[in-house]
Design brief:
The protein has 118 residues and is an alpha+beta fold. The protein has 2 helices and 6 strands; from the N terminus they run E-H-E-E-E-E-H-E. The two termini are 12 Å apart.
């Protein structure tokens, strides 16, 4: 079963991101690649490098970033291949815990969505 895991947090946080978190994330990724659960993962550039395309009033509208009105944005993602939803949730818990270990005031979520197999 494949799941998309999206890390959502404040794009301009009031805390510094320590180098130790990047090191811990690299080790977490490496573990997943070695045991076969991590298919792909990437961090995302700030919203200033993106756009939102939407439909409103029957018309297509595009808005360039940054998205100041958004409280939390997706800052990175991973695709995991696991045996169960519970296993995907546990990987998400570990990821949140990694952030809290290095940034105790960190606030964010990991949204986990199963990828359709059709």
């Amino acid at each position: 079963m494949r799941f998309l895991c999206m890390v959502q947090t404040d794009e301009n946080p009031p805390w510094e991101i320590p180098g130790a978190l990047y090191e811990a994330m690299a080790a977490y990724d490496q573990e997943g690649r070695l045991n076969g659960t991590l298919v792909e993962s990437r961090g995302l550039l700030p919203s200033a490098a993106g756009a939102i395309v939407s439909a409103a009033d029957g018309r297509v509208k595009a808005i360039d970033g940054p998205f100041a009105e958004a409280k939390e944005l997706v800052g990175g993602y991973a695709v995991v291949d696991v045996r169960s939803r519970e296993e995907a949730v546990e990987l998400g818990r570990r990821l949140v815990q990694l952030h809290l270990e290095h940034i105790p005031e960190w606030r964010g979520t990991v949204e986990i969505r199963q990828i359709a197999d059709f």
